[in-house]
Amino acid sequence: MAKKKTDTGNDTPEKKAGVEKAKPVAKKPAAADKAVKGASAEKSSSINKKSMPAETVKNKVEVYSRFTDFDIGLFKSGKHFKLYEKFGSHVIKVNGVVGTYFAVWAPNAQHVAVIGNFNYWDRGTHSLFVRWDASGIWEGFIPDIGDGETYKYYIKSSTGEDLEKSDPFALRWEEPPRTASIVADTYYEWSDAKWMKNRHEHNAIDKPYSVYEVHIGSWARNPESPDEFYTYEQLIDKLVPYVKEMGFTHIEFMPIAEHPYYPSWGYQVSGYYAASSRYGTPKQLMKLVEAFHKAEIGVILDWVPSHFPGDAHALYKFDGTHLYEHADPRKGFHPDWKSYIFNYGRNEIRAFLISNALFWLDRYHIDGLRVDAVASMLYLDYSRNHGEWEPNQYGGNENLEAISFLKEFNEACYSHFPDTQTIAEESTSFTGVSRPVYTGGLGFGMKWMMGWMHDTIRYFSTDPLFRKYHHNQITFSLIYAFTENFMLPFSHDEVVYGKGSMLRKMPGDEWQQFANLRLVYSYMFTHPGSKLLFMGAEFGQGGEWNFSQSLEWYVLEYPNHLGIQETVKALNKLYRTEPALYEKSFEGSGFEWIDGGNSNDAILIYSRKGFDAKNDLVVVLNMTPTPHQNFRVGVPDSGNWTEIFNSDAKVFWGSGLTNDNAVKTETVLWHGRQNSIVVNLPPLGASVFKRVK
């Protein structure tokens, strides 16, 4: 059993002070026990010290620091990437006394104090000490409080403004709409050593990488109480076996860092270091991640370093100044989302964000980070009109500070956790997103292939009768498919806001809609690149995704929807077991057109190749409802070829036009090949052939 302590600090100063990690058994003052649990700072009463119990008042803050001079130097230079071991609240024992150490960065504050249930939210009782080194850090040790204590920071700004702020480094928050931070013990004894030792094999770019994207709050809910979320722990027995059964190699959670506004889907983060309390505790999330690892499934988190909301209790104007966000609204305000953009040129902010990325990889054993809205970070004129942005020093529209930050973020992730992946949601033609930093790239492991996604959906939304006039839409992706390490995404963005579900994007009658959906998934899984499919799409949900309710699981009572689910299972199995589909997924030598120009019949034929020629596959896609009997296909080599997948199989709710017997090659020159086979092509169907002995 691998044991990992998840709240460690620098030993040197603590040993000198006689400090040790304390168990969560804090002794609170008797008077504090009477405080109402969960009281928010907004309800803070201006209690006079004289009216407070003496036992509470006497618990003054003691001078104590977890920071060394080396820590401060790294922080100021933006190179401290484990700030979560220093900042925030930490239950420790100082000279035999259990209490909590607090540290917060507020360089422009006149005064900082800790307020909470333990002191009746009084602003004058527990004041922190500002460091002497101009770091802007306020800190101190408060005895007799510990795990589970609710708190905020009272900050008096340089202009005299009174602020009550949640802790940017808090490991746990109150459940929204309450906004206070909670002192949290996150020690967890991990038992996923086998996965962690071998995960480089699961995360490698020459291995299968099929991702199931999930929004925890709406994947499923308690059928007896539809408004009730499943907790992280409850999902262990529901979500883990389902993902395993479906054959996905990874699961991706839409943002689960604490966020005040549920309809933001988690993309408006307020607590970057806290797992959302809507779904349970930090340890419950760790247990869920561990369960996925034991099922040999990797876990990816959506990470949002691009912007944050302007809620009064969170990061915005944290110490009364534009501390975390860029002060210039042309760089610091996002017009689309009415949110605020981090100041990527400030060293302390870079350290805050990179520490946060490493925090999830370290403390939660996360296997990859999908970085949201990278395009909005790269360009100064993103969603801005003329005159609303300022060019960089060279006169261009690139955000040089953000580009530098992203490179440093990726270097830090891969240097500390080389067996993980970073994935960019980037929708432009920016060069080298998934190329190493030392070659001039941004350093991501993969990039979402947004162009492929848009072209594919447009093509498949077209009536099959007219697809021959749009042939270039479906073939264009192979012109640039190997310029990046691309992931093919059918994500949440494509099934909301009136766009229709994946099923309803498909034209034709009911049978054709389902056949088209099976076909587009077959095209996706045989196209070069890793894969991502949003929840509900794997069984053909008819309605658009609604974050406020469960998926439409009841449709699996019907054979057509069950057929879609069985198709995705089969495709995941095909993808995992056929090396030709993943070994050279990001190399041009892994793909070859056999016939990409038959626009009149709307038929695509191509070969997928792995390291060993014996594993080569031939893929035939018929994009129209017209079946083709005795259709000749050129193949790479002679021998017997057998159909290992057919999307028209009856088990998938197809018509059953399959090739059940192995087909022997004939020495008939076809499609520029010396050998060819004669097969049947199903209507709106995909067939995959492999040479067998």
Provide a descriptive summary of the structure in words.
Helix content is 22%, strand content 22%. By secondary structure, it is of the alpha/beta class. The strands form 7 sheets. It has an 8-stranded parallel barrel, surrounded by 5 helices. Among the domains are: 11-182, Sandwich (Immunoglobulin-like), CATH 2.60.40; 215-367 and 387-421 and 436-447, Glycosidases (TIM Barrel); 588-692, Sandwich (Immunoglobulin-like), CATH 2.60.40. The model is unreliable at 1-58 (pLDDT under 50). A hairpin with a 6-residue loop joins strand 5 and strand 6.
Strands, helices and their partners?
Blueprint: H1 11-16, E1 19-21, H2 54-57, H3 69-77, E2 88-94, E3 97-105, E4 109-116, E5 129-130, E6 137-143, E7 150-157, E8 162-165, E9 181-182, H4 193-203, E10 210-214, H5 216-219, H6 239-246, E11 250-253, E12 257-258, E13 271-275, H7 282-294, E14 298-303, H8 329-332, E15 333-334, E16 339-340, H9 347-363, E17 368-371, H10 374-378, H11 400-416, E18 421-424, E19 446-448, H12 450-461, H13 471-475, H14 477-480, E20 486-490, H15 510-526, E21 530-534, H16 559-577, E22 591-598, E23 603-608, E24 617-622, E25 628-635, E26 640-646, E27 663-664, E28 675-681, E29 685-692
Parallel strand pairs: 10-11, 10-21, 11-14, 14-17, 17-18, 18-19, 19-20, 20-21
Antiparallel strand pairs: 1-2, 2-3, 3-6, 4-7, 5-6, 7-8, 7-9, 12-13, 15-16, 22-23, 23-24, 24-29, 25-28, 26-27, 26-29
